Amino acid sequence: MFSVLLGLLCFSAPGSGQQPSIQADDGKRYICRAVPLSGDASCPVTLLPELTVGSQEEELRNTVMQLRETILLQKETISKQIGTINELTTKLSLCASTTDDRKYDKGGSWGKEKQNTMGDVPRDPSGSINGLGKTMQGLKDRLENLEQQMRANISGASFPTELRDLLQRRLAELEKQLLRKVSNLEEEKSMLSNATAAYRLKTESTLNALVERISELEKGGGDFKSPEQFKVSLPQRTNYLYGRITKSLPEMYAFTLCMWIKSSALPGIGTPFSYGVPGQANEIVLIEWGNNPIELLINDKVAQLPLEVRDGRWHHICICWTTRDGQWEAYQNGEKLGNGDNLAAWHPIKPGGVIILGQEQDVVGGRFDAGQAFVGELSQVNIWDRVLKPVEIQSMANCSSYIPGNVVSWLASNVEVFGRGAFKRPLEVCQDRLPNA
Fold it and tell me: Beta partners for 416?
């Protein structure tokens, strides 16, 4: 048996001691409480607060706690993201310093590696540039992931508007800086690739010229002691005696034409050199006819040269020209005798034409006029695609050195003669060509 019997007594919330009865709902709530049988049934009953109000306070309390935790988490996330942004900014600065170190120096040349003048080809910068490109791409991917995380955090929880706008602006600035760096690196890569290709092309051209020169020396130049030691003789004024150079000219924006020439023809020596292209037979012409002085024609434009070679002696002459303002210079026996400008200014020399020695072309490669034919002898007709320095011209004129043309060089294999009476003959020593010989 229980020592204490419990009973249930129901009390009305507003009062006590009344028996409950079945009646209509009056809006009141009742609380059942267990009391001992020996207890006082009239004990006061403590009213509890309404459940609805307590639930709302508890819910609000829980919501406040959750918001506090969310804010703390967001602050921690922001600190990590700021650290990541600082790390990316440092790496971008390192990339910028690396890019500045690889730029050209003020003289437009390579850096210290350019000092190697032994003909070595510069190392291909593609590996370094590709590595930088991969690093930039990795940084960009990390920025994009960071931006996506930021957007997810912003959309998933309440976030201060000012801080969100600040982070978005910062990310946008970093992305723009990254894109500029990548663009600069790509541009530098393209410039380095072009410079490397041009350097290789120049080196290969020089090597090919050397190989050709060696081949000619090995062949012995036929009956000549060296490939350039010969002359072309055109002893009569006819329209069927001439020489032809088997090579043509490329497009040129400057040139130097040098030759040894000997003539005593009257009233003029004629046309020792002519170059014609389709559509323009007088692209480059050197002519003396009648009582006129020697004339230089470029694209059918004329300049008179202060040269005198009709004394039956060997003379070394050079004509330099550049398309810039049509400037020209005339040298005889190493001395500059005249210069001028506005000769076919800004007109590039057209490629793919025909070079004729001894005749003026009315059409490309033919229709010669006997009245304009050259009478005399020619040797060492060379053409360069640049303006030679005065010291180079003087060294060739006084026979202290021989510089073959880089566009057209005087080789026995490059010159053909046509017509009965035209021939190539050995010219053994430079002394034979000197004016006082």
Answer: 244
More confidently predicted of 302 and 40: 302
Count CA atoms within 13 Å of residue 187 on its CB side: 8
Q: What are the CA-CA distances from residue 37 to residues 3, 127, 198, 355, 361 (Å)?
A: 11, 97, 114, 139, 144
For residue 311, which phi and psi values (nearest 5 degrees)?
-105, 10
In sequence order, what E strands does 268-334 have?
270-277, 280-288, 295-298, 301-304, 315-322, 327-332
Report the range out of 169-178, 204-213, 296-305, 413-422 with the highest average pLDDT.
296-305
Which of 115 and 170 is assigned the larger pLDDT?
Answer: 170
Starting at the edge strand found earlier in the chain, the sheet holding 242-245 runs 301-304, 295-298, 280-288, 270-277, 354-357, 242-245, 415-418
d(CA 260, CA 257): 11
Question: Could you tell me how far CA 311 lies from the centroid of its own chain?
Answer: 53
pLDDT tens by residue, 232-277: 999 999 999 999 999 999 999 999 999 999 998 888 899 999 999 9
Mean pLDDT, rounded, of the chain: 76
pLDDT at residue number 71: 77
Tokens representing residue 53 in the block? 């109000």
Task: Single out the residue of 436, 427, 429 nearest to residue 379, CA to CA.
Answer: 427
CA distance 86 to 130: 24
Residue of 187, 207, 196, 232 lying closest to 412 (CA atoms): 232
Contact between residue 245 and residue 365 where contact means Cβ atoms under 8 Å apart: no
Backbone angles phi, psi at 427, to 5 degrees: -135, 95
Q: What are phi and psi of 15, to 5 degrees?
A: -145, -175
C-alpha 245/C-alpha 39 separation (Å) is 140
- Residues with Cβ < 8 Å from 83, sequence gap 6 or more? none
Query: Quick one: average pLDDT of 33-45?
Result: 54
- Given a cut of 90, whether residue 94 has pLDDT beyond it is no
Contact predicate 308/390, CB 8 Å: no
CA–CA dist 50, 13 (Å, integer): 11
**pLDDT value for 375:** 93
